[in-house]
Write a structure and sequence with these properties.
Radius of gyration: 31 Å
Strand content: under 5%
Order of helices and strands: HHHHHHHHHHHHHHHHHHHHHHHH
Number of strands: 0
Helix content: 55-70%
Distance between the termini: 76 Å
Shape: elongated
Length: about 525
């Protein structure tokens, strides 16, 4: 409230505009809960206790031994995350999601095992309903294939520890978990449609059915040798085995939206939903800044192809490219792609004022993104896509004006120290610099697409030289120092941009006027 009143007083005195920009807020409490090691230790203690408790549920003869083995496997799992997936290990929310999903799967398996000792029908059918792929399928969709494989290994080992009767049943559970989990991860990797989850469930159900027959859980061979013709029981067993895979995929499909909202994770399905060009901001962009809109569409193609070249997320790049310049909606006529050929408003402004208007589109974009509740990663791309680069055109123009003033000042006896010096920092974007691979891709794609359109004759060699020169300049300017990307990946991005730009700006065959005139007369005669 105090800041608001101070801002209003400054606005009344003409020292600031009346507008208050929205900002991305991250409280100290949320940062503490998400990254602090004390919270992580508390979570590990709760997860370990829950795992041990699941192992001890029911009256089992070797429950304590199972619990200790499970805890040793839990320590191995933590060590694996610490070495191979440090970003997951240090993120308390992701850690909770990872182990919480595994514990839910184990709890369901334990409940099914406890139901074996009741009626014979349930004793035969219920074990076939084990949700072998609940954790692998969920974690692959939400976090990625590495986490899916992690769930396959440790989910299978912990599940095998729950079965305490015969060692061959342990092996059967382990092998079925591994094989069905691998199928689920492979089929559901790069999830773009919810139908892929159902397809994964069908494949997993078929694999579970075949493996159950192979390990004798469905004794079809007994029909031929013993003359047992209990077809109803066998059909029920087959249906239960198949339903375990298909039912798991249906449950996961229903849980994904809730888990995305709860743990702030976004799947490729949600990203594709955000790529809808009927979004109010994109519709405004197409009507009020058509040049920027066309530039964004072209950039989406460039960025998506570049992301595929380095195995980044192409869907995030496409969506980020759509929204990266929405800040130009505030003053679209000041940007080249929206200008009319006979009207350039920058001719009446100083270079410093022009630079302020151009750089403001980043802050305006963040403000519009927050107002329209865009995804946090899209807003980050809006903030980072220019980094802290210099608006070279207006900087050189300001330097030229300074030199002209200094040269003219000697004739009218103006002291050189009274002439203000042009500072490069006044012509830089506010930043921050790109911090993700997707932001780096969009940063390069934006510069390459804009610069290529300014070429008079965009030949393949000129395009190649231009894109690689832009990359070298940004590397020299340390624009990618905060981004987890390698030099090799940056060169792959540049090569991909060149290849896609060549397709966009390819030359056409110049038809002769005589041939075109003949074509016109022939069409008139038809």
């Amino acid at each position: 409230m105090v800041k608001y009143l101070e801002h209003r007083q400054l606005a009344a005195r003409g020292l600031t505009c009346g507008k208050i920009r929205r900002r991305v807020k991250e409280t100290k409490l949320s940062r503490f809960l998400s990254t602090h090691w004390l919270v992580r230790c508390f979570l590990i203690l709760i997860i370990g206790s829950g795992l041990f408790g699941i192992m001890m549920i029911g009256e089992t003869s070797i429950g304590t031994q199972q619990g200790l083995i499970a805890l040793l496997l839990f320590l191995a799992a933590l060590f694996q995350l610490r070495i191979g997936a440090y970003d997951i290990f240090c993120n308390n929310s992701r850690l909770t999601l990872l182990f919480g999903t595994l514990l839910c799967q184990l709890l369901l398996v334990k409940i099914l095992i406890l139901g074996e000792g009741h009626e014979d029908f349930y004793r035969i059918i219920v074990p076939l309903l084990a949700p072998y792929t609940l954790a692998p399928l969920t974690l692959t969709a939400l976090l990625g294939k590495k986490e899916g494989f992690f769930a396959i290994v440790f989910g299978g080992l912990w599940g095998a520890c729950l079965v305490d009767r015969f060692i061959n049943i342990n092996i059967a559970f382990l092998i079925i978990s591994f094989i069905t989990g691998l199928i689920a991860v492979i089929v559901s990797f790069q999830l773009r449609r919810r139908s892929q989850l159902i397809r994964a469930g069908i494949y997993v159900g078929m694999a579970t059915l075949l493996l159950a027959i192979l390990f004798g859980k469905i004794e079809i061979s007994s029909i031929a040798f013993s003359g047992n013709h209990d077809w109803l029981l066998i059909l029920c067993q087959c249906a239960a085995a198949f339903a375990s895979g298909l039912g798991t995929s249906v449950v996961v499909s229903g849980l994904l939206p809730m888990l995305e909202h709860l743990f702030h994770v976004t799947t490729d399905i949600s990203w594709l939903e955000m790529a809808d060009l009927n979004h109010p901001l994109l519709r405004r962009l197409s009507l009020e800044a058509s040049g920027t809109y066309q530039h964004s569409l072209a950039m989406a193609t460039l960025a998506e192809a570049a992301a595929e070249a380095i195995h980044a997320n192409p869907t995030i790049c496409r969506v980020g490219a759509y929204f990266h310049d929405i800040g130009k909606l505030i003053k679209p006529e000041y940007f080249t792609e929206n200008m009319r050929s006979d009207n350039n408003p920058h001719e009446e402004l100083t270079p410093t004022m022009s630079a302020l208007i151009i750089t403001a589109h980043v802050k305006e974009g963040v403000d519009l993104g927050l107002k329209n509740k865009l995804h946090r990663r899209i807003i980050d791309i809006i903030r980072q896509h220019h980094g802290t680069t210099v608006i070279d055109f207006f900087f050189q123009r300001a330097r030229q004006q300074e030199e002209d003033i200094r040269a003219g000042g000697k004739t009218i006896n103006i002291r050189l120290e009274d002439i203000p010096t042009v500072n490069m920092d006044q012509f830089r974007y506010p930043g921050p610099r790109p911090r993700t691979k997707e932001a780096a891709i969009i940063s390069l794609a934006d510069a390459a697409e804009s610069a290529t359109r300014s070429l008079e004759r965009p030949t393949p060699q000129r395009i190649d030289d231009l894109v690689h020169t832009l990359l070298k300049e940004r590397l020299h300017d340390h624009q990618f120092d905060e981004c987890p990307i390698t030099i090799g990946e940056l060169h792959k991005i540049a090569d991909s941009l060149v290849s896609t730009l060549l397709g966009m700006f390819h030359t056409r065959i110049a038809y002769k006027k005589e041939a075109s005139a003949k074509g016109e007369s022939s069409r008139e005669n038809l």
